Amino acid sequence: MRIERDDLSRPEVEMLVEYHLREMHAHSPACHVFALDSSGLRHADVTVWTVWDDAALLGMGAMKHLDDQHGELKSMRTAPSALRRGVARAVLDHMIGEGKARGYRRLSLETGCTAPFEAAHALYRAAGFVETGPFAGYSDTGFSRYFALDL
């Protein structure tokens, strides 16, 4: 597995972003989907990483700079063909390391709260994240769960 910073210029990455958005809208009310589209992921305060096995795209993750001490994890997605291969944990560990390298004191994330998100909740807990409340302008709508990791 190879993890690299990505500029979203490859079609297979764009397809994974689109798949991620479709899945988010399939499992949450549209007004409660906070996933970034490609233009949002290209914003200057967002860094995207992709995971590859040779030329095969396995997954992705992104980090949004909130302030000098706080980053937000975004767009965690494993390609359907790569599920249960450790892709999500690899990109999560990479982003935790990047957060530490940036000097962040905390990483936070927002995710869904329904059954399709339970595997993600387990992943975040296994990496040391704890459930918290809303942050960075999010509000408690009943459709999200919030996690944070103190670095």
Question: What is this structure's SSE topology?
Answer:
Layout: E1 2-6, H1 11-27, H2 38-41, E2 46-53, E3 56-67, E4 70-78, H3 87-101, E5 106-112, H4 118-126, E6 130-132, E7 144-150
GO molecular function: acyltransferase activity, transferring groups other than amino-acyl groups
Keywords: Acyltransferase, Transferase
Domain N-acetyltransferase: 3-151
Mean pLDDT: 94
- Helix content range: 25-40%
- Tally of extended strands? 7
Assign the CATH architecture: 3-Layer(aba) Sandwich
Please identify the structural class as seen in this structure: alpha+beta
Number of helices: 4
**Spans with pLDDT under 50 lasting ≥5 residues?**
none
Question: How would you sum up the major sheet?
Answer: 7 strands, mixed
Domain unit count: 1
Q: For this structure, what is the CATH homologous superfamily?
A: Gcn5-related N-acetyltransferase (GNAT)
- Order of helices and strands, N to C? EHHEEEHEHEE
> How far is it from the N-terminal to the C-terminal residue, by CA?
25 Å
Please, could you describe this protein's structure?
Keywords: Acyltransferase, Transferase. The structure is a single chain. By secondary structure, the chain is α+β, with helices and mostly antiparallel strands. The protein has one domain: Gcn5-related N-acetyltransferase (GNAT) (Aminopeptidase, 3-Layer(aba) Sandwich), CATH 3.40.630.30. Helices cover 30% and strands 34% of the residues. It has helices spanning 11-27, 38-41, 87-101, 118-126, and strands spanning 2-6, 46-53, 56-67, 70-78, 106-112, 130-132, 144-150. A seven-stranded mixed sheet has the order 1-2-3-4-5-7-6, sandwiched between helices. The radius of gyration is 14 Å and the shape is globular. The model has no long low-confidence stretch (mean pLDDT 94).
